[in-house]
Q: What sequence folds into this?
């Protein structure tokens, strides 16, 4: 029976703290979006007509920005892209003023990517305080975190969960290994929390130097040995990109040694259970964290992840913008 | 929980003494059979020029569409494709309520182009669900004609929409609920007013 209680989401800033029923509602809605659009000539829904979605990106991105933009457009929202380099940010405008300006200009939703962890949270708090003061707007401006520093990237975790649900049929009880540069990975953090919330068992596999301080508080187990983890027969392996741009120190001796110890080679992939899925958030560095032959194999769900990304982001926009404002 | 098309007052508090049965399980079966005959008469699914497709509006319309197709099959031998169409994303009252969960959408493999599409729902009230369904239909293809079959028409239309096939006309007060129960969802068949 369809309920009309909503899922009580005002912003989507992190998967940590997202309740299980909220996460499942988002995944169910994403599946519904996929169903609503399959086999149609016209991939357009009128659901968000008259709503304005602004993507505010302080870091480079192709797939995430395009994915949000497509999601908005397929639901008839007006989507506007602001990139920091081409805006008043380059004239020295503060984050707070930029956010307030976009809110006052009529944005109903800000999709924010920022190199500083916590930036979207600050924006959400500022906009909530400003509240109804701007003229003509609806008042509430929803904020979606599209990746903040090394903190979180909740829609990536949701699309990974949607992909796993599609491939494995369930997430409850599944064993997922997240492999690589956990320290710099907002994808790893968001996934660890979301997958645990959804009932999966998560193992982080990483060199000791690339595990964050405080990982002991995460709902995961850790390992420094990829072969040992593969021997336990995980249902899914999520390979993380080595984020050279965030590494300002010597985290491992050489790229070659990293690839040998923590890369998903064809030999390692062959030892996975037949049903096991390989995920990569992209962009993949082939030959480094994942062998080309594995990335192109039937196990890899990389293309499905991109497709699921649009449906998941449609679901997020739907729950944030389609219903009445959540008080 | 039975389907309740609530009155505009939204109070919806069903008092136990105020419940009145409109259709028993046997009445409901007879009504479905009669509507099936009417659809056959009007659309000739066993030899007409255009194929007939029954599309149910979730949740209970979907099961009613399947029952109608089954009866039509028993009577004429024709196989009538059925599907389900969730109009939620096309509703005009989304902003007035918290977001709803989406229901299933699955069109028959042959699609709906050039078919006579009969939309099937349990209760016809304001007409807004049907309006949303018509808009959704337009994005899925171009039927030759669209008709509407409902189990109960309770009046209080807010749009110029009428049903082609009506199981039972029931004059109601806006604040009353029409509760349709189907075995597939609720474990029993029946319609009551409270």
A:
């Amino acid at each position: 029976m369809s309920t009309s209680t909503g899922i009580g989401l005002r912003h989507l800033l992190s998967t940590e703290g997202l309740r299980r029923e909220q996460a499942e509602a988002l995944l169910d809605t994403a599946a519904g979006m996929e169903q609503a659009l399959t086999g149609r000539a016209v991939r357009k829904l009128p659901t968000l007509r008259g709503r304005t979605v602004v993507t505010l990106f302080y870091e480079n991105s192709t797939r995430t920005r395009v994915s949000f933009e497509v999601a908005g457009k397929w639901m008839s929202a007006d989507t506007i892209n602001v990139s920091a380099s081409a805006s008043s940010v380059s004239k020295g405008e503060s984050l707070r003023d930029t956010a307030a300006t976009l809110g006052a200009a009529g944005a109903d939703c800000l999709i924010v990517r920022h190199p500083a962890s916590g930036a979207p949270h600050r924006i959400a708090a500022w906009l909530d305080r400003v509240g109804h003061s701007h003229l003509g707007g609806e008042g509430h401006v929803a904020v979606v975190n599209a990746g903040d520093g090394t903190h979180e990237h909740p829609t990536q975790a949701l699309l990974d969960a949607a992909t796993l649900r599609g491939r494995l049929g369930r997430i409850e009880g599944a064993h997922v290994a997240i492999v690589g540069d956990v320290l710099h990975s907002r994808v790893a953090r968001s996934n660890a929390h979301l997958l645990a919330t959804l009932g999966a068992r998560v193992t982080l596999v990483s060199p000791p130097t690339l595990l964050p301080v405080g990982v002991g508080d995460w709902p995961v187990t850790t390992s420094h040995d990829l072969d040992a983890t593969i021997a336990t027969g995980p249902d899914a392996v999520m390979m993380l990109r080595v984020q050279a741009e965030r590494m300002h120190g010597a985290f491992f001796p050489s790229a070659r040694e990293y690839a040998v110890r923590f890369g998903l080679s064809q030999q390692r992939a062959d030892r996975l259970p037949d049903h096991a899925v390989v995920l990569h958030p992209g962009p993949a560095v082939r030959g480094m964290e994942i062998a080309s032959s594995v990335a192109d194999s039937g196990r890899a769900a990389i293309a499905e992840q991109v497709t699921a990304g649009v449906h998941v982001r449609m679901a997020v926009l739907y729950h944030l913008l389609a219903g009445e404002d959540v008080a | 929980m039975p389907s309740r098309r609530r009155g505009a007052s939204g109070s919806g508090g069903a008092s136990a003494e105020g419940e009145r049965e409109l259709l028993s399980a046997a009445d409901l079966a007879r009504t479905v059979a009669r509507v099936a005959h009417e659809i056959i008469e009007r659309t000739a699914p066993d030899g007409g020029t255009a194929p007939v497709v029954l599309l149910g509006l979730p949740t209970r319309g979907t099961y009613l569409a399947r029952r109608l197709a089954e009866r039509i099959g028993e009577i004429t031998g024709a196989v009538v494709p059925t599907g389900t169409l969730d109009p939620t994303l096309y509703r005009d009252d989304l902003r007035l309520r918290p977001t709803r969960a989406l229901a299933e959408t699955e069109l028959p493999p042959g699609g709906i182009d050039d078919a006579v599409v009969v939309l099937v729902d349990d209760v016809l009230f304001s007409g807004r669900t049907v309006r949303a369904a018509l808009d959704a239909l337009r994005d899925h293809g171009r039927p030759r004609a669209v008709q509407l079959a409902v189990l109960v028409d309770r009046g209080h239309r807010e749009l110029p929409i009428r049903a082609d096939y009506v199981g039972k006309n029931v004059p109601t007060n806006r604040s009353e609920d029409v509760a349709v129960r189907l075995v597939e969802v609720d474990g029993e068949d029946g319609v009551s007013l409270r």
About this structure: Chain B has one domain: 21-193. Helices of chain B lie at 25-43, 60-76, 128-140, 183-186. Chain B has four helices and nine strands. Confidence is low (pLDDT under 50) at residues 7-15 of chain B.
